[in-house]
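Box S2. Input/output pair 1.
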Amino acid sequence: MSVTLSRRTRTVPSLSLLTMASLLLSSCAAEEGPSAADGEGYPMTVENCGEEVTFEAAPERIALLETAPVTILDELGLMNRVVARAGDFPAEYYSPELHSQIQEIESLSDDLDASGHLMISQEEVVAHSPDLALGQPDGVERDGLETAGVNLLIQELYCPEPAAEASFETVYAEIETYGEIFGEQEAAQELIGDLEDRVEAVAEQAEGEDRTAAVLYPTVGGGSSYAYGNRSMAHPQLEAAGFENVFADADERVFEAQLEELVDRDPDVLILLYQGEEAGVEETIASLPGAESMTAVQEDQVHTQLFNFTEPATPLSVKGLEQISEHFRAEER
């Protein structure tokens, strides 16, 4: 903007009065008609999970197939473009106003399996004529959606081959991508600036913290428990909160945790993720054979947290970081 104005300033003195009048009339006419910026930057192509996704225009009809993108869409003023949703959208993630808005959107399915995965058919999604689907539950394929004219975006951390070690830059990159796709770059940068300040504030409070920690996803009622390595958002969360991730050497996002290894690494702090009901989550870990010998269990340094407050990379990850920090700083007071 400033460059354009300075160029006009240099050019105006050499224009005749007639030319200036003509330009003014043209300017008025342009203001009365459609903006010249409409459609600027399209078509555009972004890379998603190694696939090129091309947008001929900013998407107008969004199908939400996971909860995670909601906070980005809301901060960029895009929730009015969501025409359908699927999955569970816990009120704890959102303001009362935003949660009420979500409830007014038609729900395709809230059927989750025991591990929290959404069950939905591709046909149900396509039937609502979206031009963009966010999230890829079981039964939904990129090729099938593209054939129906629907673009698909998957959170980078959920890609079959996710990027290297996760960081809060992963959050900011997701926001930038949404800003570019929808032409909301300025709002995206404002959001990123706010999140950066919040992460920095937590990191400053964590100076001097020297405890170790692990982030787990227990299966309530029996079954495997899972741990999070350096390709998950759990890793930068722990680092920003001042903790050392005992599974920082695991070069993957999530993996089945072996009880013996968990006990051997003996984290000072445990953060347990869950979806659905919180009841039984902490007890599931505490009741495992040998768990009573872990420092975190002995000293009651355990915090339970809804899954999206950690994964994937969204503003909720920053909120989750703040909750972790507040919980364990409160324990120290």
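Box S3. Input/output pair 2.
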Amino acid sequence: MSLPPSDMPPLCFKVLANLPELVRTTFSKARASGDVNFYPTKVAVFDVNSVPFQLRFAPSLANKPKNPPHSSSSEQSLPKKAPFDPFDNPPAPLLITTPSALDSHFLVLNKFAIVPEHFILATRAFAPQTHLLDAADLRAAYACIDAYHRAKNNNVHKKKDDNGEIIREDTGGELFVFFNSGPASGASQPHRHLQLLPVQRMRDGLPDDGGHGWDVLANALLDKSTRERLPFQTFAERIDPALGADGLRTVYLALYRLACGAVLGTAAERTSQQEEGEARISYNLAMTRDSMVIVPRATEGGDVFAPPASGDGDNNAEREKVGQLAFNGTLLAGTALVKSQVEWDALRQDPGQLAAVLGRIGVPWETAPGGTQGRGKI
């Protein structure tokens, strides 16, 4: 079932009907012209208490442009420039849809892509990333998810293999959508945006036989036993196209309140009627066609240490810190990213460090304030 026309967001119907191919084409052109920076990765799959997690390493991320250094005291006395907003008049080659006065949202490529065809749903007018999502945000995101799902079998992309033979390739598939909100969530831009990743491209580099076991974590979190195997609390609910915008927001607010209760530890927070304004906690949201999940966040990540030398045991105090592992909303896809060879080597040689960091980034089961357990769905 697709979203009913009366509930569709003000994104062009033609764009939604052809979204996977439009994203693919825009990404290919922007990459060829140098308007998108794509960072190829190596990948390994780790087992975290029987939950598969991807770990990716992008060697060329070391060359990514860095933020400008802090201003000197003399520069600070000058009039301050407004912070750069990448979603205010973005470069034309990155645009998937062109913003107009009739649109509440538009689609644009992520300029710095780890996953090919990574794109973004941003509000046309500025809205704070730290505030609660509204119904229009959620319905626009779900419309994109639905467009990819419908295109999976309806459209076929033809291309030639290395031998010149024509092969068929689905242009659609599934989308993983995530949202970062708050200082501990991995959020980096103040202008409201949700990020969208084609699931098929998230599988790039994994064996085709599926023996790695990885799949999008958000869907598995609908199962209570999977949620309880993770070292942090999550809150999940099944969704479907029939919910519509208001139904999606009802689920979102209920999950958000459960997350607030887990962090702040009072029944009042879990039953709060907050529907607008700034979120009370840091959190990540994930959406697929079938699931909506929220994870409350305590920290963005944790330290990575050199593997223990013989006889050193597991005491981190005696081990050299070699980097930091940070998570954003792709945590709920079951993925992590490192940016240096030394971090990559340390985690592969001592995989338990991944689980240790995961145990620090959210609300652990055994220390949840106020006795909340959050083990059930709403």
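Caption for Box S3: The chain has one domain: 5-61+93-371. The first strand starts at residue 37 and ends at 38.
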